[in-house]
Amino acid sequence: MAISVFDLFKIGIGPSSSHTVGPMRAAALFVQALRERGELAQVRRIEVQLYGSLSATGVGHGSDNAVIMGLMGEWPDAIDPAQIGPRIAQLRENDRLLLDASWPVAFVWARDMRLIDENLPFHPNAMTLVAEGEAGELHRDTYYSVGGGFVVDASQAAAGVADRDTTVLPYDFSSAVELLELCRRHDLNVAQLMLANELTWRSEEEIRAGLMKLWRAMQDCVEQGLKHEGILPGGLNVRRRAARLHRSLQELNKPNVIGSTLSAMEWVNLFALAVNEENAAGGRMVTAPTNGAAGIIPAVLHYFMKFSEAVTDANVVDYLLGAAAVGILCKKNASISGAEVGCQGEVGSACAMAAAGLAQILGATPAQLCNAAEIGLEHNLGLTCDPVGGLVQVPCIERNAIAAVKAINAAQMALRGDGQHFISLDRVIRTMRDTGADMHDKYKETSRGGLAVSAVEC
Ligand code: SF4
Fold first, then answer.
1. What's residue 163's pLDDT?
2. Ligand 1 pocket, 343 CB below 6 A?
3. Which of 14, 124, 169, 452 can pair with 386 through a Cys bridge, CB separation 3.0 to 4.6 Å?
4. Could you tell which of 16, 277, 341, 343 is best to mutate to test the pocket of ligand 1, judged by most ligand atoms within 8 Å of the CB?
């Protein structure tokens, strides 16, 4: 399975990669299939069935609305988040869905949006879409949202294939041991090796431009997060904090030099809070590698860009490539989905990725970079996914800020060493996978355990 940096970092919308971005993509793929089969104009009615975690916490994550938008032909990277609310309200009022933005079909929300409290075997985030014509069923497919906005359909799941991309890469790696050996043998650092792999899909100019576009989207997201105040949607009455914190930090007016001020860490908190509040509000953001954990990687990069001297675009490119190398290892050998392995797969993976990215631009050897990632992941092992009310707010928003600070510390600790460490990155990733397998389902994005339950009891 070949994974690109652009698979791990995708411009999307909040609040969840597996519950919002993935379901919207799945529905858009379903419409695409109807179009390719020449059946679009024969459709009279659509039924949506959400299973497992999508049923348990999907409404809180906006999965239902996301699927409808996908059926209307929208894609997560292009949709205007501000249009979702009014278009859903119109559909609910008229019982009419504009399939592929062109073909009106019947859709009665109470009847056709079905939440089914049952797990399908391949993955807990499952959904089935059914298109009916005059004479009965025209087409149905089941999709699995496997984390980070990745989607697998029923035939891929049956073949045990999680991704169709079988591109042969010049420096393919499936473990940190292989990555380190390739770097050693070809005298490359991790970012250089990743860039060489990316050249299989795109020119260097396109890669650099694409990564800078992601960075601009991350910056826009922080900017939006600093502008908005008030209560986040969903009913928990969680107050946004980023704008107020920003004003306080500006008042401090401390010099922008690392180490000169305790408030530097507060800036890291600020960047993460801004992204995750924007995500929780359904705004535009970048999956990194998921929505729930989307604040960590941008926060650490903002921190570096704000407090370092003579920063360049090359720093951004190297940071994202270094981070992606670790994201690939987590995805290939464990999971980046909270529904599969708990929050260690989301926040833990993002923390490891950010640590690796920062280590890369601070001049780490490949061994030091792997050490940074290992430290970042090791101290998130066992982290459960227990979002209160099924919303990506508590503990998710604050957890990103804590993990971003942890990532910086991990990179700094690794850079003080020679790359040798007691437990290897491969072993820690394997431990994440095994811990996730042992973890009770109630701690995997179902909101049936942990803080999700304690908060209700209080
Ligand atoms: S607790 Fe972690 S894994 Fe679960 S929704 Fe929040 S950020 Fe995602």
1. 53
2. yes
3. 452
4. 343
Atom index in ligand 1 nearest the CA of residue 345 equals: 3
Residue to substitute in 347, 381, 442, 444 for testing ligand 1 pocket (most ligand atoms within 8 angstroms of CB): 347
Decide whether any atom of ligand 1 lies within 6 Å of the 151 Cβ: no
Residue nearest to atom 4 of ligand 1 (CA): 385
Within the chain, which residues score under 70 in pLDDT? 161-164, 253-262, 456-458
Question: What pLDDT, on a 0 to 100 scale, did the predictor assign at position 161?
Answer: 63
278 CB near ligand 1 (under 6 Å):
no
Q: Are 350 and 403 in contact (CB under 8 A)?
A: yes
Distance CA 425, CA 214 (A): 27
The span from the CA of 153 to the CA of 23, in Å, is: 11
Cα separation, 223 vs 253, whole angstroms: 19
Say whether the peptide bond before residue 395 is cis (omega within 30 degrees of 0): yes
Residue 96 identity (one-letter amino acid) = R
Residue 436 in tokens: 């996730």
What pLDDT does residue 458 have?
43
Closest atom, ligand 1, to C-alpha of 399: 7
The pLDDT tens digits of the residues spanning 232-255 come to 998 999 999 999 999 998 887 655
Question: Ligand 1 centre from 65 Cα, in Å?
Answer: 20
Picking from 118, 139, 140, 132, the residue whose alpha carbon sits closest to that of residue 54 is 118
Q: How far is the CA of 314 from the centre of ligand 1 (A)?
A: 31
Per-residue pLDDT at 100: 97
Ligand 1 atom index nearest CA of 342: 3
Please state, as a whole number, how many other Cβ atoms lie within 10 Å of the Cβ of residue 19. Answer: 32
